Structure prediction request, 464 residues.
Amino acid sequence: MIRPSRRVLEAVAVCGLLAAVGILFSRNIDTAPSYDEGVYLASLDALRHGQTLGSQVFASQPPGFYLVLRLVALPFGNSISGIRTGFLLVALGGCLAAYLLGRRLSGPAAGLAAAALIAVAPPFPSEAPRVEADVPSVALALASLAVAAYAFGRGRPFLAALAGGLLAAAVSVKFLALPAVVPFVALALARRATRRQVVAASLGALVVVAVLLALYAGVLGELWDQAVRFHDRARSYPGPNDSAGRLSDFFDFRTPFSWLVALGLVASLATRRVWPLWLFPAAAVAFLLWEKPLFDHHLVLLSAALALPAGLALGALVTRLPHRLALAAAGALVAALALGLGQQVRRIDYARVTTTQDVEWGVTALAKCTSPGELVASDQPIVAFRAHRQLPGELVDTSLVRVETSSLTSARILELVDRDHIRAVFAGRAFVEEPDLVAGLRSRFPRRLRHGEVTLYLSGRLCS
Prediction:
């Protein structure tokens, strides 16, 4: 049994680690929003104003994400940095789950090492505060694995049900979490889960699925088409790199993370408890090879999947070494993790970007030329969100992928502009690539304001 003094030290170490990780994650909280963040913030605004997911608001992710989005954003209003703070806390929850999982399987040192390694695993730190589905889905997957480690074997069926529910919730946020099913099943086998526990875990997952089906019973067809079929069609869209090439670039031995993963793989030979978790990165690689187009934010799955078993194995190995050798190994591990943290600070600072002048002008012009809460159209949804103007739900995502795959056509955009009597359209991205759409906007909007590469199309009565 752990003495109280050791428990206090462990609690201090965990709190100190989470505080340091929180500071690291927060360095990216003020960077300019990505296009996807603009989509989800505009979706949040549309949902808050009564538009319905699926039938009115385009759902580029499964419905669980939009529940998480509304819940996380609830305390923070319309502040982008505030909503990002909520997502940062979710990311910290994922690190805490990694600690609890490692602690359960191999002790406190293993838990601390696993949590710390996830925190410095690129691109997890830079993606942690972003208003996107990737990190929340991975964080929930980590939570499900942590609870499963406590549930299977001698745990109560209630915990197994909770673990299954968390796993289903992770997948309902983004299908990126599907590979977590593999280590979940492996943990059940390795820890000799009882039949009651397996049934409880299955029922927990089914309850989450049933709740989501009940909540969105009227729009299941639309959600399937948008969250599943659209992504299947998007596989034909050319990404910035092929999946295999992007994954090979991920393993960069100029980072401490890659070296620690390699050492963790070797250290895993000394403990049998880690092997179920190494199935996680194997499943993640297979999934990401299938994923097209593959973007950087998808790689948070692989970073967490690798960091979990590697960190656990390294921490467990340190505690098994003779005292003096253990102190030296622990010092080296802490130094490597600190080096990784410093490297991530530099990477985040280097990659931080400011909002372009075109976007800033668009926010100001749209706010000046339209009324608060008025419906507008824009191919950069962050402009409408920051100007406190609403987008028709079907136009929250006007990405090049939607346009190129005919998920959103020029004719449909113009139809929505006419239907909703939209008096202002901000164009500077996908809209300008469609000649038919540009011609349609010119015929409808006699007044046009230009700034750099963007155009604000206005009704003749506006800003005159």
User: Anything to note?
Assistant: The chain has two domains: 4-30+61-351, 357-458. The longest helix spans residues 323-351. The mean pLDDT is 92. The radius of gyration is 24 Å.
